[in-house]
Amino acid sequence: MGVSCADPSLLEGLAWLSCYLMTGKHMAFYLSFLTVLILLAITAPVAIIFGLLGAVGSRARLLPVRLLGRGYISVVRGVPDIVFFLFVPIALDQGFEYLRHRIMCPEVLEPVRQGNDFVVCTIAKLPLNSDPQWLHEIYGFALAVLSFAIVFGAFAGNTFRGAFEAVPRNQLETAEAYGMSRLQVFWRVLLPQMWIYALPGLSNLWMILIKVTPLLFLLGVEDIVYWARELGSAKTSAFSFPHPDWRLWYFLVLLLFYLGLTKISEIVFARLMARYNMGQATLGGSRQLGQVGR
Amino acid sequence: MTQQSKSDPVIALRGIHKSYDDLMVLRGVDIRAHEGDVISLIGSSGSGKSTLLRCINMLEICQQGDIQFCGEAVRWSGDGPGRMPADQAQVVRMRTQLSMVFQSFNLWAHMTVLKNVIEAPVTVLKRERGEAIDEAMALLEKVGIADKAHIYPAQLSGGQQQRAAIARALAMRPKAMLFDEPTSALDPELEQEVVKVIRQLAGEGRTMILVTHDMKLARDVSNHVVFLNQGVIEEEGSPETVFGNPKTERLQKFLHASVAA
């Protein structure tokens, strides 16, 4: 552009705006959109895996496995999400550090809990104090993803459990009659047929997941809401780019971002439903064939 | 394990007892099906004929009695109500040689007709996929729905679904076939297309056990008819004697009611 952003006080109009929008903090703001997308992209599959494990566990024949699966689903579902989001990262962090402490510093005999302090030896710290800042941030982000996945996995687990039960008995029995093992029945018939019953519930969960991503800031991750508030608030002339309270505009951007995201999700889920409805003796399946009037 | 000899029946049931809690469904049933036999099981609802069929491929576990398949006896563990097959591999082996055709077709809803037919041959019998597809197409041709190979079951009529289910059963290259009221869920005109296929299979000398309400079908295709009543065999014999000259009063009544219906 050829415009120097070195002294913003000399700039006006569009030139000022373009320089303003390219500051380091704005870059962090843009990057935080990516953080949200990455969180969603990792959390969703991990939550689905947790949910499947929970659902399969809760239907297991072995009593301890069954209790574990049911316990996971009902305990996590029964606790307010925000409490869980705050609790899990701290619990996981201290849990990991405690294990490392026991393994790596066996000579330290003092209790880990000293009054209100949680003290582990220096080399057991996670991440190490000497580790670079980005590693600390990634570690914090990973704990956040894990907490989201644990919470949403429990809800997904409940959805999956209902979906497993909804698959007609005769479909499974036929597979048995043709010599399939329990594992084959699960992979070849139960799992593929379950999705159609699980998808509506999962689509709800996905929407909710998108909408709770601002909770990331509770976990110390600087997300889009944090930056929108930070950048939008009024800046006095002490700043290089002074401006009045612009939070309204920043939040409007967030609004549009979330609306766009949920709209795209709706389209994707509609396609998935159509795919799994293909040829099914359901209302949705018949509608595709034009066998059902409007 | 006994060696299979020519004289061994394909299916031999001896003294089969089955109850659900207090309800006795089968009280000592003996049936022998030799190669090429087509045996029809008839009887009113609740006589235990479907349960008996399901005991053969162990979808239901009978609490007493022996099941022999081609001379090989099912091994059991436990006794009475807790009795289970001792050897799961044996159960799988027998099931793959005993294809079942169900009243409600039970085609796997998430697979096309062709995938339904090749599913068990490929995943259970580990046959080569290309070969399985060729064989499946030939079987679909045989039952007259080759043009429906790439369509999902829900898009087919009941008669077409049942013919697809028969093709799926044949794809296992079974030693015997079990039909559980294969035409009961069909309209009369669709029924005929399925009956035609069953008649054709009987004509090929396949070993079949058929549970049916259709007396005409039983008379036409079977060489042995078994009349079950309250869990025991009340009367059995060739179709000519069972239908033409019923001895027991119960069978006479039953046949009379069936004709009237």
Description:
The complex is a heterodimer of chains A (294) and B (261). By secondary structure, chain A is mainly α. Chain A is built from ten helices and two strands; from the N terminus they run H-H-H-H-E-E-H-H-H-H-H-H. Chain A has a domain of 185 residues: MetI-like (MetI-like fold). Chain A has a two-stranded antiparallel sheet with strand order 1-2. In chain A, helix 3 crosses helix 5. The N and C termini of chain A lie far apart (57 Å). Chain B is an alpha/beta fold. Chain B has a domain of 76 residues. In chain B, strands 8-9-10-3-11-12 form a six-stranded mixed sheet, sandwiched between helices. A four-stranded antiparallel sheet of chain B has the order 2-1-4-5, covered by helices on one side. In chain B, strand 6 and strand 7 form a beta hairpin. The longest helix of chain B is centred in the last third of the chain and has 16 residues. The interface between A and B is medium-sized, with 24 and 28 residues.
Mean pLDDT of chain A: 87
Strand order of the largest sheet of chain B: 8-9-10-3-11-12
Helix content of chain A: 55-70%
Q: Which structural class should the secondary elements of chain B be placed in?
A: alpha/beta
Oligomeric status? heterodimer
Largest interface between protein chains, with number of residues from each side: A-B, 24 and 28 residues
Order of helices and strands of chain A: HHHHEEHHHHHH
Give the secondary structure arrangement, pairings included.
The complex is a heterodimer of chains A (294) and B (261).
Chain A: H1 13-20, H2 24-58, H3 63-77, H4 81-104, E1 113-114, E2 117-118, H5 133-166, H6 169-177, H7 182-212, H8 224-232, H9 247-277, H10 283-289
Antiparallel strand pairs in A: 1-2
Chain B: E1 11-20, E2 23-33, E3 38-42, H1 49-56, E4 64-69, E5 72-73, E6 76-77, E7 84-85, H2 88-96, E8 98-101, H3 113-123, H4 129-142, H5 158-170, E9 176-180, H6 188-203, E10 208-211, H7 215-221, E11 224-229, E12 232-237, H8 239-244, H9 249-260
Parallel strand pairs in B: 3-10, 3-11, 8-9, 9-10
Antiparallel strand pairs in B: 1-2, 1-4, 4-5, 6-7, 11-12
Helix pairs in contact in B: 3-4, 3-5, 4-5, 5-6
